[in-house]
Amino acid sequence: MKPNFSRRRMLTGLMAGAGVAMLAGCDRMTQSTQFGALLRNTEKLTMSGQRLLLGRQSLAREYSVADLSPVFRANGTQSPDSEEYAHLLEHGFVDWRLQVDGLVQQPLSLSLADLKRLPSRTQITRHDCVEGWSAIGQWQGVHLGRILDIARLKPGARYVIFHCADELEKTFDGSGRYYESIDLPDAYHPQTILAYAMNGKNLPVAHGAPLRLRVERQLGYKHAKYLMRIEVVSAFDTLWGGRGGYWEDRGYEWYAGI
Ligand SMILES: Nc1nc2c(c(=O)[nH]1)N[C@H]1C(S)=C(S)[C@@H](COP(=O)(O)O)O[C@H]1N2
Ligand SMILES: [Mo]
User: Fold this and answer.
1) Is ligand 1 within 6 A of the CB of residue 77?
2) Counting Cβ atoms within 10 Å, is residue 182 exposed (0-12), middle (13-18) or buried (19+)?
3) 99 torsion bin: left (phi>0), alpha (psi -120 to 50), beta (else)
4) Is 243 in the pocket of ligand 1 (CB under 6 A)?
5) Pocket test residue of 223, 226, 253 for ligand 1, highest count of atoms within 8 A of CB
6) Does the Cβ of 214 fall within 6 Å of ligand 1?
7) What is the pLDDT of residue 57?
8) Considering only CA atoms, which residue is closest to atom 23 of ligand 1?
9) Which atom in ligand 1 lies closest to the alpha carbon of residue 164?
């Protein structure tokens, strides 16, 4: 019982202290044989270390309304230029549907109204882009985990792929289309939501209307905008560049934890 107790105390301390405390905590953590073996066996402390030590359920910091950025920059695609999207936008997204398929027992086709009828979560968080800017915004949407529960995962489900409406790069084969992926622990994280509102209003086009992902423990490029389809898969190596995302296929890390 005793080692368990002290390990739990260390974890609590780590969660409270975040980044800086984590380095000091790691030294102590390696003294525990189980954690030591775990760390020696993992090549990437950024991914495995951070996630196992801090816990997959630890929350990103949340802010107050007073902290909202007066200007929240838009990045990447700011208005998908396809005819399909133009049509959807013109009709206020009433014809838009979110497809949920792949390794699920009950594929879904959800309207914006369907999503808005489900219980929602509102969170004020800081968005961090690898390009070196941050902004604090308020997001409202449905837990991704709730949607996955409604669709009921099939055995073998491991990742959720987000297919977007926009092509960030024009290519002949469609490989310039934006997409992203996360694993199930991130999908079920309490702050991982499909957001339809930003700062109290319907999601603006520049920020991903009608629906975008918020996955608050990860960097900006993971937060897929202009969602069209969610596909549950066992692996993503056969998809486009095989690295699990538009930017990942161009060299960025798949796990972009912050
Ligand atoms: N569909 C899509 N999602 C996207 C992008 C994009 O170009 N297309 N850019 C990503 C990047 S790099 C960032 S920083 C954020 C920007 O979100 P914002 O425009 O709301 O600031 O969206 C991410 N999601
Ligand atoms: Mo970004």
Assistant:
1) yes
2) buried
3) beta
4) no
5) 223
6) no
7) 77
8) 221
9) 1
Residue ranges of domains in the chain, CATH in brackets: 5-250 (3.90.420.10)
Alpha carbon distance 240, 48 (integer Å): 25
Which residues pair with residue 104 across a beta bridge? 153
The angle formed by the CA atoms of residues 234, 237 and 243, to the nearest 5 degrees, is 115
Ligand sitting nearest the alpha carbon of 223 = 1
Q: Is the CB of 226 under 6 A from ligand 1?
A: yes
What distance in angstroms lies between residue 130's CA and the mean position of ligand 2's atoms? 5
Q: Counting ligands in written order, which one lies closest to the CA of residue 82? A: 1
Residues shown for the chain: 258
One digit per residue, pLDDT tens: the chain, 258 residues?
A: 333 333 333 333 333 333 333 444 334 443 444 444 444 444 445 555 555 555 667 999 999 999 999 999 999 999 999 999 999 999 999 999 999 999 999 999 999 999 999 999 999 999 999 999 999 999 999 999 999 999 999 999 999 999 999 999 999 998 999 999 999 999 999 999 999 999 999 999 999 999 999 999 999 999 999 999 999 999 999 999 999 999 999 999 999 999
**C-alpha of residue 186 to centroid of ligand 1, in Å:** 18
Q: Alpha-carbon distance 193 to 212, whole Å? A: 8
Q: Is there an atom of ligand 1 within 6 Å of 246 CB?
A: no
What's the predicted TM-score (pTM) here? 0.82
Helix, strand or coil, per DSSP, at residue 177: strand
Give the pLDDT of residue 51. Answer: 54
Ligand nearest to the CA of 222: 1
SS3 content of the chain, % helix, strand, coil (to 5): 35, 25, 40
